[in-house]
Amino acid sequence: MYQSLNKYSLLVAGLLPLALLAQNNSKAPAPVLPIPSAAQLTWHEMEMNAFVHFTTNTFTDKEWGYGDEQPSVFNPTQVDAGQWARTLKETGFKTMILTCKHHDGFCLWPSKYTEHSVKNSPYKNGKGDIVRDARDAAKKYGLQFGVYLSPWDRNRADYGQPSYVEYYRNQLKELFTGYGPVFEMWFDGANGGDGYYGGAREKRRINGATYYDWPGTLDMVRKMEPNVIFFSDAGPGVRWVGNERGVAGETNWNTISTDTLHAGKPNIEALLNTGSPDGKQWVPAEVDVSIRPGWFYHAAEDSKVKTPQQLFDIYLTSVGRGSTLLLNIPPDRRGLFHEIDVQSLKDFSALLKKTFANNLAAKATVTADSYRGKQAAFAPRQLTDGNKETYWATDDDQTTGQFEVSLKGSPTVQYIVLQEYIKLGQRVQHFTVEALVNGSWNKITEGTTIGYKRILKVTPINASKIRVNITSAKACPVISNFEVY
Ligand code: FUL
Question: What gap in Å lies between CA 197 and CA 207, rounded to an integer?
Fold first, then answer.
């Protein structure tokens, strides 16, 4: 009698929730909401973006200009945005985000709304436009372009008044209509405090939640650039990762509930760092970090440029934890990326290429304990076919699963790469990885989230097979890629 039990009899007996009857394992799994927008997906796939911090600070040796710097101090002699873009392109970066205006208020383009800009500097006798140069160079080398326009402005006399918000919006209009297409817009969180403010030299406080009327400002920008990605601590496009060290959470959910992210909330950095499994919005963490201790160039930091190995480690704690890296390279007083920084970037890029040159799992035989609806479309070979649009998945009622790959001989294994098919949402909550060594399985690593990409570094081991066990997931696992190095 028990053998004749089927889904329908279980349902009648009250043992099976109605929802399971709706499952159709011959079709793609239903998405687990929220899911990324098309623009966010593009952003995930970029993996490495670059920041370029350049302003009067470069010449005054400061990190935060007070706002009283004379435009005359801005005097780079050999600006070559082509050198920035070429270097970034050659070393694997996809976007160049320029500080068009930092907190000091100095504008790198000749804004018609202020005198505090390149137009009153000796640079090209006031005829220069570094935003244009950077945008054109980005285009020439096939990079996307992004803008950083600091909301906090320590130069403006009316900072704190409604008229300043108008000024800020006018500048956004200048940038988005004159310098597009803009891929990403960066709204940093530093706000209010001491400043020159047109000579007032005082401390000003604003209410960060209401002063700028962000919803209105974002709507205005979206009308000019519908697909722009907005960075701010709380998104809505991408969120801050909670530190400037280059480290995303080992558990890193792309999901978070933005209504829980208010300034001053205790431990907000920790929440930004990990996201939340039950987050209501898809707002992935972007890992911003500088190649030098400061964001701006200081000659005294020439000996402190991060080494290729340090950059590689940051790659593992950013891209390798499902985030996107935003690495800052500040031009020096000539207006060039310094030779030391360029060399470090080149060696980092070579190290990346060398480490991930030979995928031991490419085209290898992969088996799984099960796969969705026994359909070829969801079979384990989709894990290693090199096509990011195909994936291995399990049946809807199964939130665990394992797959293994047979390697040729017993090569040395040091890195495991896993990718979820995030178009259908982020699912995996825990997994382990085992290696078959001399006929017995050894656990070599484990992790929590995977997301767009997870790279695990393991103690080098000679293995004939590698097995991944998805031990917990929010819904059936959907894995698009598996690599072994
Ligand atoms: C912060 C700023 O205060 C820093 O100067 C830098 O621009 C960093 C990327 O964002 O909010």
Answer: 17
Summarize pLDDT for 245-288 with one digit per residue, the tens: 999 999 999 999 998 887 677 899 999 999 999 999 999 999 99
- Scanning the structure block, which residue is given the tokens 């990718």? 419
Q: 384 with 366: CB under 8 angstroms? A: yes
DSSP 373-409: GG-GGGSGGGGSSS-TT--EE--TT---EEEEEEPSS
- pLDDT tens digits, one per residue of 131-165: 999 999 999 999 999 999 999 999 999 999 999 99
Q: List domains and CATH numbers for the chain.
A: 2-30+360-484 (2.60.120.260), 38-355 (3.20.20.80)
C-alpha 225/C-alpha 172 separation (Å) is 11
**Both tokens assigned to 46:** 């970029």
Distance 52 CA to ligand 1 centre (A): 11
pLDDT at 7 over 50: no
- Ligand 1 centroid from CA 188, angstroms: 6
Query: Which protein residue has the closest C-alpha to ligand 1 atom 3?
Result: 190
Q: How far is CA 358 from CA 84, 273, 437, 484, in A?
A: 30, 31, 20, 8
R_g of the chain computed on alpha carbons: 25
Residue 42 sits at φ, ψ, to 5 deg, of: -60, -45
Amino acid at 319: V
Atom of ligand 1 nearest to the CA of 290: 9
Question: For residues 239 and 281, is the Cβ–Cβ distance under 8 A?
Answer: no
Residue nearest to atom 1 of ligand 1 (CA): 188
Burial of 162 per CB tally in 10 Å (0-12, 13-18, 19+): exposed
CA of 244 to the centre of ligand 1 (A): 9
Q: Closest Cα partner for 428 from 274, 239, 252, 238?
A: 252
